[in-house]
Design a protein that fits this description.
Blueprint lengths: L3 E6 L12 H15 L3 E6 L6 H22 L4 E6 L5 H14 L2 E6 L4 H7 L2 H13 L2 E4 L2 H11 L4 E2 L6 H4 L11 E6 L8 H13 L4 E6 L4 H13 L7 E5 L3 H9 L3 E4 L10 H8 L3 E4 L5 H5 L11 H14 L2 H15 L2 H16 L3
Parallel strand pairs: 1-2, 1-3, 3-4, 4-5, 5-6, 7-8, 7-10, 8-9, 10-11
């Protein structure tokens, strides 16, 4: 079996820290798996679009030039495209047009959680290019089961379910502590408006009003301007700053130490591109109970509708936490969340699925 692969992704691109999210983290984990399976990888960075239209066009031209050059000299048998469709769809079509001529097998992995809605809302031109990309792919790796179902219904394509996951070496370190009596709230990920950090702060305030002592830890990169807005909100709500901790970005080991101390992961994201959140999976692995929005694949990841909020209201999130504390379900839910990760979202499980899919693909005539 030829073990060489060209990997097209946002990695190695010039992306500001506050914009780095789950897509980049997921790509890094996929690369680890590919290397573990013995694949040699050649990297190509997708255009970022962070430098305006002219910058994007220049990056696009350079990317196409690099790809054509690699295709002419590479002896790789696989081309792995991490796709972002939307404004990228024509570029992705162009790239795969050239790849098909090279006779390489194509893997297409659509990131984010808006592929279906973008297709449904797109005009006939967008739909044409998106369908061609899907049809040209020899395998489509899907983060969510709704993608698998959609591709089967619309084109009779059998997508391969490859969810995000937690690395085994980190899962081994997960420890579920007993509830201490004080409620510890946490959010990890990008600290940005579409994640509704202001609502999380208001939930903490509401819990104080209901007599529930709590603190809130916020971990992730942020813009200074947005951090200033949140600091002002703390002042306006008269929340003691010593009960809300902004810790910035953290390496995994330090982040996981904080997850060990947490009780509830508050995740009210309304980001339209939300997919399978790594932060959500990691929190669940440590037995942190998620209270999450309906964004992305949250509902199928959590697997418990009582923890999914259909409305973006402070009262909904606060009431859910209060009900769990009063019912005495907290320890049971901790175990339920951790067990769900161990059953569906581990490195070992996903590695086997990727290995099986690649072996099947490479042995096809």
């Amino acid at each position: 079996m030829d073990k060489k692969i060209i990997f097209y992704s946002p990695l190695n691109a010039d992306v500001p820290a506050y914009k780095v999210g789950g897509a980049e983290a997921g790509c890094k984990r996929t690369l680890e798996i590919l290397k573990k399976l013995g694949f040699q990888t050649e990297m190509i960075s997708k255009p970022t679009g962070n430098n305006g239209i002219r910058g994007y066009l220049k990056e696009t031209a350079n990317s196409l030039k690099e790809i054509k050059k690699k295709l002419s000299v590479s002896d790789a048998s696989l081309f792995y495209m991490v796709g972002f469709y939307e404004k990228n769809i024509f570029l992705e079509w162009c790239i795969l047009f050239f790849v098909r001529k090279s006779k390489m097998k194509i893997i297409y992995e659509p990131k984010n959680g808006c592929m279906v809605t973008d297709y449904q809302k797109g005009n006939f031109i967008y739909r044409y290019f998106q369908r061609r990309v899907w049809k040209w792919a020899d395998r489509i790796f899907c983060q969510g089961t709704k993608y698998v179902q959609f591709l089967k219904e619309i084109l009779n394509i059998d997508g391969v379910y490859i969810p995000n996951f937690i690395m085994d070496r980190y899962l081994e370190k997960t420890v579920i502590r007993s509830f201490s009596g004080k409620t510890h709230l946490i959010f990890t990920g990008r600290i940005s408006p579409e994640k509704n950090i202001d609502l999380i702060i208001r939930v903490s305030k509401r819990l104080f009003e209901l007599g529930i002592d709590n603190d809130l830890t916020l971990i992730g990169a942020y813009k200074d301007s947005y951090k200033a807005e949140l600091d002002q909100l703390l002042t306006d709500l008269e929340i003691k700053k010593e009960s809300v901790y902004f810790l910035g970005q953290m390496p995994p080991d330090m982040l996981f130490e904080k997850l060990k101390e947490a009780d509830f992961f508050i995740f009210p994201s309304t980001n339209r591109t939300e997919g399978h959140s790594n932060a959500l999976t990691e929190a669940m692995a440590f037995g942190v109970i998620p209270i999450a929005s309906t964004a992305g694949f949250n509902r199928e990841i959590v697997g418990n509708d009582e923890l999914i909020m259909d409305e973006l209201k402070v009262e909904c999130y606060a009431e859910c936490i209060v009900n769990i504390l009063k019912s005495g379900q907290i320890e049971e839910l901790r175990q339920e969340m951790r067990q769900r990760v161990k059953q569906f979202y581990t490195e070992s499980i996903v590695t086997k699925r990727i290995a099986d899919a690649l072996e099947e693909l490479l042995t096809e005539s």
